[in-house]
Fold these 4 entries.
Entry 1:
Amino acid sequence: MSRQDLLKELSIRDDEREESSSTGKWVAIALLALVLVGAGAWWFFKGTQVVAVTVVSALPASNQAGNAASVLDASGYVIARRQATVSAKTTGKVKDVLIQEGMRVEEGQLMATLDDTNSSAQLNLGQAQAEAARKRVSETRVLLADAQRQATRQRDLMARKLTSNQALESAQASVDGLSARIQSALAEIVVAERTVAIYQQQQQDNEIRAPFAGIVIAKAAQPGEIISPISAGGGFTRTGIGTIVDMDSLEVEVDVGESFINRVLPEMATEITLNAYPDWKIPGRVIAIIPTADRTKATVKVRVAFIDKDARVLPDMGARVRFISDAKTPLQAPLKGVLVPAQAVVRGQVFVIKDGVAEARAVSVAEQVGENARIESNLSVGEQIATDNLDQLKTGTPVRVQ
């Protein structure tokens, strides 16, 4: 091959140059599109990324004790002074149960009914017997009136010597006998009416009512089961319909070592901490020091009352009681609002976490209480407040509680 032919082979034809230029243009366009899509995805995911936050619950400001010195700490449990397993007065079969766990009942409210077939029949029998006794009295009174007329006629005839003394005595005896029968029938009416009253009471005993207002914490019987006020043995007879607790009677009972009981005084101020809410300090006071010691544990029981009632306090919760040194210092008036960590308030707002989403809430700090801020409005007790990564939050930001 000549040199001229080799040069022709190595040269690029015009159509190949145009094809190469077109391919490069489409490659550049594709790369630019990928860059734009990537940038859009980056901005999208940056704006909607899930932020990990730590949250705390807003606590009642009124339930925070001061910094008084403690002379003693003791552990115990929340107990209810009024708690009852409600049963029937008599043994019977359960007809209806009208309660459920967690339900509030008022004093005298119907909780369950028993089968009243037998007591209804007895009541009807007693009412029929009372009615029969009343009719006997009416009948005997008619007979007595007739006997009295006969006796009067015999006395008139005796006065005119037209009858015998025996006839008069017989008429008078009839009068006396009928009078006695009326007295007996009246006594039968009293007996029948009292029997009816007994059967009516039995009917009322088939209705099981709440002895006091409270919350049902256990439902123990179902329709069709046999219930008895005493244990009948075995597993087929229930001894109660359910258990109710008067939540207003909740208090803490703690065991204090007998070596330290001299530090506890009546009406002494206390600070109660529940195991379930370790950051919640509840003011209390000593109700009573039980005047006996447990020789096996060398402890004395002390009853402590809650100053503030709260629905979060439940029976049998573990509690720790801190006895305050100055027993004569009255507790401060309850504060309004809620307490949140001061670090959670940024630029006049906090972030409330609900259903995995942040919500900016404008607040005003009333005062600093230690490391907390007291806020009187726009926040409720129990709301979850974010305490970190606040600069990454805004209303609508998805969050993950850590």
Entry 2:
Amino acid sequence: MKKNENGLSLSATDLVGHLNCAHLTKIDLAVAGGTLRAPTFYDPFRHLLQERGSRHEQAYIDHLRLDGLSVVEIPGIGIEDEQVARTREAMVGGAQVIVQGAFRKERWVGRADVLLRVEQASGLGSWAYEIVDTKLSRETKAGTVLQLCLYADFVGGVQGRRPEYGYVVAPHTAFERQPYRMDDYGAYFRRAQASLVDAIAEQTAYPSYPEPCAHCEICRWSQSCEQQRRADDHLSFVAGSTKLQIEELRRQGIDTIASLAEMSTPLEWKPTRGARTSYERICQQARLQVQGRTAGRVLHELLPVEPGFGLAALPEPSPGDVFFNLEGDPFVGEHGIEYLFGYAYDDGGVVSYVEDWALSREEEKASFERFIDFVTTRLEVWPDLHVYHFAPYEPAALKRLMGRYATRENQLDALLRGGRFVDLYSVVRNGVRASVESYSIKKLEPLYDYQRDVDLVDANRAHFQDRSSSRA
């Protein structure tokens, strides 16, 4: 979203952003108008995604070249008159592939990843163009379809007819194009466009608030929006609260953590949606969080004992117990990779820890086999052992690896059927109430006196920078 001599220009990014968060549109308008400065911060994860996205796009272009197609690349990163004119010239000239074609139509601007020539009549002659978008996601999202629809409008304006199909190329599909019929999404696209245009026209009138949403994970405004929610004592910071519960509480005049902490229980009103007990539970959670803020430390209290739940779900300890954690990267290869198998165990009175790194498919398979063999062998000595993990990721990942490599099926099946895996997240969530905003293991560190030498944000930044420098 930028202001120029012709007014405000809009892009597919603005359209997708508005679809996810109306507040994003309002603050982007303030930046375009010069009343607000955009934040500048380095997000290593977003930087890595951008890098991988660029590599995927380049790999597809190289694939087209290997197929014998000639490629015309539109230089630069802007959408100036020169880039727009070059794109039109390439289309009129019948180029087989046009990369980063630049377009402008009324207030809308954009650059399409790839335009492919098809032998169909259009205003250009006996040929026309269809749009191909390269995306890292294995599942096409609504925003991607909106982007294709906007580019279809651009291309249609040049060649005299709208492309019938737009395509998405996901990683590790042998560059197979997933087709999307543009007319099937036309009404949705026009409605989204109209919504953004109306929001811009009413920018001083329509209310907005930085409610948390999925788009926060990739939004440059996420930190400043979180700061505002913290200043407002927003209910989203109550551990375990849901959007549905927050909306219901607001209808009852409860819109801060402090006011929720003071809500009387048992509940005196009937929720329109959800059970009374769920609201009473987050009320108690808010109460403890407020107490923890006042005390300046993490507080906790044990929940009532219930057979089979919480601490009562823990088995008897065994000298053979194993504490297991996996670290994975979902964007490596076709199915991601589990790159670090970490497990601790008692080795004759001394705690031993295994760091088994896997940076290739062969190493991943070997690491998986070593871990399963280790536990199986250990069972022969301590038949009462259990494997402890936090949250359900580890057993699910082991099952995926077993299926991927068709190995250790019987051993893993025996471990699963024997109830050897114990999820400590479930134990903690059902056994302890703590004054934390999330029951992730990192938020609970103060309860078991774990002290970090390096802050997590700094560790992530160093990790991504090291990986980038190693590729340079």
Entry 3:
Amino acid sequence: MRRTHWIAGLVIAGLITAHAQQQGRFDVRSFGAAGDGKAIDTDAINKAIEAAVGAGGGTVVFHHGTYLAGSIHLKSHVALFIDQGATIEAGPIDKAPCDAPEPNQWDKFQDFGHSHWHNSLMWGENLDDVAIYGTGTIHGSTLNRSANANSPAGTGNKAIALKNSRNVTIRDITISHGGHFAILATGVDNLTVDNVKIDTNRDGIDVDACRNVRISNMTVNSPFDDGICLKSSYGLGVARATENVTITNCQVSGFDEGTYLDGTFTRTVKYGGARDTGPTGRIKFGTESSGGFKNVTITNSVFTYCRGLAIETVDGGDTEDITIDNITMRDIANAPIFIRRGNRARTPGEPPPGTLRRVNISNIVASGVRDQQGILISGIPNYPIEDVRLSNIRIHYTGGGTSADAALEPEEKEKDYPEPNMFGRLPTYALFARHLLGFDVREADFSFDKSEARPAVQLRDVVRVDMENIRAQKPGTDTHELLKPVHLAKAVKETF
């Protein structure tokens, strides 16, 4: 009787599994996954994915449970659905190793993490029509935030990595402790990332050499590195632009790791240390910029307890046609807006500086901005940034600059890694701009808390300047004054 019941149970389970597969859904438990947080489920998960591939495509399902795994191999025409209460977790590297980093002859031109994709919890290469979605979690508990070629075998440093792929959707999931990159997309065209929550120990999402990208409704907390970062490295062996990108309705922050997800929003990552820059977070273009950035729009986003917006092109790529609108910022560690054209030239052949032109930034409100730097826009001698327009800008700084600060002469540092703090304290509290060709500022208001001895604005080597309706708090007073309109063919060194 027991044998009869056992056989009947197998038949029923087989029928249920077959029915599910016929519906295009492949439950990883049907392929041997335990989901108990103890067993290693890597093989079962990859078998379920291969079964979906064999059926011509489908959805691999993770129901409630914790699935410990090493590298999961994403495939074309296959989606992963991570259900509410389900967690895919990076297992111990001795039992659930990630794949080894693949060779890359171009790896000296960008960081190790940008040069390899296989050493990840989930990875895919040369894929079409891939999705990762659901309200479950990916937890990279054993992922390394700074893995390199000398790391122990089995070490992974990315939660999700995709290379040279098309038509990719990542939606609604949560990623915690994602390693060097929670999401790395390189050479991915037609990428949609929507309503994803990331609370991690380094970069949230890096979009590298990608085209036709839509990022929306994301929240990224990353105290020690960038939140949402556009890059254009040489990792693919070609200088490929990141272009046609929209980023909207997003939030970035630098609270302690994990405290966004648990709702405590703790702030123990303090200003100080070697770089004196505080928490990172933020939205940034660069640093890798071999291919440049083109046709990018960022709108309706919030920065909290992190660094400010950064647009950096330093490796020879062209950055053109950038629109940024409707951004609010609070408690910002450095320049609320940083635009840099430099000459690091970390690209084969050491090309000359790429262009940086046609940048419109409007409707920015910021408060609690630290006193090191105000808005900072800097090209380099003979290679100006071109056609920058700022409009409807309201920024309240902490203040505290001295008369000695007002006399500072920031170095050029043409080849340095681009960060606002590379220039140290600035001689102005609100806006410092140099090496520009075409600079318009309309409708701006600058103020501060603590006593401030520095002037509001200084322009150096700026050709074709138009500034109107600029209201700034006067150094040493509580008085705001409307600056006289400025219309100059060239500002060699003008202070306001």
Entry 4:
Amino acid sequence: MLNRFASFGRQHLIALIALFVVLGGSAVALPGTKSVEKNDLKKGAVTKKAIKKNAVTKKAIKANAVISDKLADGAVTTGKLAGDAVTGAKADEESFRGLVQGDGRQSTSSFTAPAVGFLPQSIVLAEVPTMGVVEFIACFPDSPAGASDMRVRLLSFDDSQSFFGAGTVIGSANPQGTGDATKTEQMSGFFSAGGGSPLIAESPGASVGTGVGGWWDFHLSRGTGNDTVGAHVSVNGYNTSTAGTPIGECTVTATVEYQD
């Protein structure tokens, strides 16, 4: 009887060994046990090819596990960035100039005109496509009536659709250091179809005999959000008309930055 059981046991063992060989040495997990534990894996044993596609999910990644050194150059594309993800503190300010949406452009121009009052023909300092122009319209001689005033105007094109415009001018007696205060004038509103508004640079109290300096700042915009288009126009000028030279000249320089 014992010999019969011993013979059966040897046959069973041989069968199991044969099965193991056929399976190529693969481990067979018993019910309620794990076939492979992490301590059983050699370092580097699990390669990229051995990982099933989409097998590693967000929950399987440890917090802060993916550091910058693990990211390939160009791995994070624009489409992967959330809206407003890059804030001012994270942006290289040197990479921006003026308006940055769309096709941003910049140009500068300078003009000189005699102090004759209102100019026979206005001088376009800056042109903003689809909106209008900022133009130089007056250079007054030194007198109690004009006191070397200078005037710059925002004017919409005749066929322009409505846009918002805001402007500020600071006027001051010259030369600098005379002790005279500055005079500020502002305007804002919606402009279209040839509408416009001037801003006058003048010294406070109709000061006579000192000349006048002026600094204008205009902002134009239309639309909202990513559809916004607009421009920034800055102008500075100086009227040399003084008590010694009542009829001088005005020199103005304008810089426009716009996107369309």
